[in-house]
Amino acid sequence: MIRFALRGLLGRKLRTALTAIGVVLGVALVSGTYVLTDSITSAFDSIFSENYKNTDAAITGKPAFDLSDDGTGRAPAFNESLLASVRTLPEVGAADGAVSGEAQLIGKDGKAIVFGGAPNLGFSVNPKFPQFNSLALVDGAWPAADEVVIDTKSAKEKGFAVGDTIGVQARDAAQRMRISGLVDFGAVSSIGGATLAGFELPTAQRLFDKPGKLDQILIAAKSGSSPEQAIAAVQKILPPGTQVRSADDQASKDAEGTTGFLNFFRTFLLVFGGIALFVGSFVIANSLSITIAQRTREFATLRTLGASRRQVLGSVVLEALVTGVVSAIVGLFLGLGIATGLFKLFDTFGLTLPNNGLVFRTRTVVVALLVGVLVTLLASLRPAWRATRVPPIAAVREGATLAPGRFHRFRPLGAALLAIAGVALVVVGLFVNGLSTSTVLASLAVGVLLIFVGIALFAARLVRPLAAASDPVARWSVFVLTVLVWPFFSLPYWLLRRGFWGPGSAGSRAAGFVLGAVLNPVLLVIVVLMALRHRVSSWQPEWPADFPSVFAEGSAVQIGGQNSKRDPSRTASTAAALMIGLALVTLVATLGAGIIRPFEDAVDRIFSGDYAITAQNNFSPLPPTVAAAVATVPGVSSISSVRGGQGRAFDETIPITAVDAQAPAVLAFDWKSGSQAALGELGADGAIVDADYADKHGLQLGSSVPLQTVVGKTLDLKVRGIFKPPAGGSPFGNITISTSAFDATNPQPQNIYSFLSVQGGVTPANTAALSAALTDFPNAKPQTREEFKKAQSDGIKGLLNVLYVLLALSVIVSLFGIVNTLVLTVFERTRELGMLRAIGLTRRQVKRMIRHESVITALIGAVIGIVLGLGLALLLAARLDEVSFAVPTTQLILFAVVAVVVGIFAAIWPARRAARLNPLEALQYE
């Protein structure tokens, strides 16, 4: 039976390859995800280890509590006098101090140099201690006073060389500095899109507003002393607000935020790989079911010859095992290409990631192979079990089919119960309070899985009515797309073909060739290549002769519609693969619309001013000097900035914000308690809290809130107001204090946003005046309220585009599922097609019939998928206050059009294969 199974696979190479595509693509995304994230992790590890090469210990500032990784909290700097004390320790061989911060390089066009939203790193360098220097000098010299070294990538991309002058913006207005040298970051081949700027220590301290301060001291133990001894000695002289760690521990601490992000990133991408495999499992199960139905007489003959049910089962499972192994191996190595593509994809959407070469680990191989093989085997179990039920007597029956199983009549009820159970789990995960995060995610994942399986099984009952409803839609859709495509594809193709082999004079053929080449030059290359292979001469042009009759009622179209209803289970299973992909795409689109609309409403409700000042990338914080420069513009009546940071209250770390006395003029709150006046009267001990935080801790007007800041100081605050944040969110933290109180206890304060009102409102003159005031701050820009809303929502749309690209893989898998089903049905209906051809059905009509069946199947999957996606989005919107339920009508219409296009493309090859059947040979086909 093993030899029989392997010969069967080799005898059906095409069917096996089509069946395997779903697994190949799913495994490729899983493999590519691991390769991508392992490569990024390796690159970051190299960066962090390079930072502490030849280092035994590091001294840093110590915040009063652990900071989250959102970038708003910063450890305080410490007095540089500590460096001299460290150097006197007998256990310390060498020590050097440094400061760092954000340093924006300014291009020759006066604009900030940014590569894909990556950070702009600035730091001090000291060539006197090369063992601590992570930079490698490529050209020029190390910087002197008011000089800078920049990375080679920035220099090459923006046309800078040693000796040129470049703008540098840090905490104050941009300054012009001479480029003394070009550097690379050690041995790391790529640090993503980050820009590097290195300065001598005094210059860096001035730029980052840290006079007499250090952020870090790197230490190398003296010969004869161990790192532990050096650390112990340093600990004895550490002042409050500082800490010392070993180099390895400090590197791990620096990498914590990156590690957390990469773990989430890996899980995020693996989810889409799982989706592709899930869709692929439907393709595999459907393909094997059709193949087994076609091999009924073959299995019956085996049973007649003495094969047991176990042997038949083993034969089918072995075929699936071999298919799974081969598919997983192909997908595993295809993942290398996927990883490279993902690097470019994220770079396109503004997330330039470091890359030190692709990393292909053993874990990737094991996981990818196991997942691919297990998914294939699980998908094959039901078809394999059906194969064992073929009775021996079927070997002598013409057109024998498998009788339904004894539980077949319970299938609709079981499918409905599965879907209901899935909905129940989703509801539990969304609406039951007190569950852990892992429990909620597991409940949602299993619930959605059951919903998909239940709907897919129940969809057979919906096929006939949906096919009937989709029939006219399919005709109209094909007609409209034909009208759109004809001038750009079919007409040029017909003209080019006429130019090669058409009737008429040489002049008319030449005119047709030239006109076709002008209308579509890409087709010219295709036609020439086919002509060189002598294949075009055997083709019969469908256009433009076929164009007038495309929308005509005909027997071929009617047969195509009837074919989709002939086997509802098969049609439903084929449509289910597309249903899953479009359901998830619809869910993402609906949630995206539900997030953007409340956000824009929130901006309108909170932002009562005329302009906002933001960074060029729309999200980076800006130093307070930017708002101070704008405040000097004539006509600015009021300006208020929102500072961002972290604090600790009631034993938890929370986001905090700060506003100044002018806030009531440009910001509007929905007050639960208090009034607008409270915003401008916070003083040294006033606080505004959001309603949810107040309810959680039982706060009301006059309540005391002890807030600990990062420097360890505790502010005894009084609640002056409680506001209700809008559904779309707000830029304010749980607690908002005055700017003066914030700046006194938070090092290096930065503004998240600045809002202002101008006399005369939004006018070209006011916009020009604000832009002129920001000339010395190229990283900042003024935006009107509408521009601000659009810029902020563009970030959400960018994320949605990434999700669409990732979900497109599941749609591609479903496309191959439709292709596979149509090809297998062409095999199954070979004699039928031969009969139709024998009684007068033309090749063109055969193609139209297959195409119509494919489009109807795709539309059924689209309808069910879109409705299901809207239902899931409605549940999520009912649970999440930040999301409203908004139907993205334009996008849903686009998804339906995509489904039709998928159906048309899926039918191209099967239709051509069916049209090429020889009627006489087809009538004799077994």
From TrEMBL:
Mode of membrane association: Multi-pass membrane protein
Record domain ABC3 transporter permease C-terminal: where: 271-392, 805-919
Transmembrane helix as UniProt keyword: yes
Domain MacB-like periplasmic core: 16-236, 571-768
Transmembrane residue ranges: 268-292, 312-338, 358-379, 413-435, 441-463, 475-495, 510-532, 575-596, 802-827, 854-878, 890-909
Entry keyword set: Cell membrane, Membrane, Transmembrane, Transmembrane helix
Highest taxon in the source lineage: Bacteria
UniProt-annotated location(s): Cell membrane
Pfam families to which the protein is assigned, alphabetical: FtsX (PF02687), MacB_PCD (PF12704)
UniProt keyword Hydrolase present: no
Family, as annotated: Belongs to the ABC-4 integral membrane protein family.
Name used for this protein in its record: ABC transport system permease protein
Source organism phylogeny: Bacteria, Bacillati, Actinomycetota, Actinomycetes, Propionibacteriales
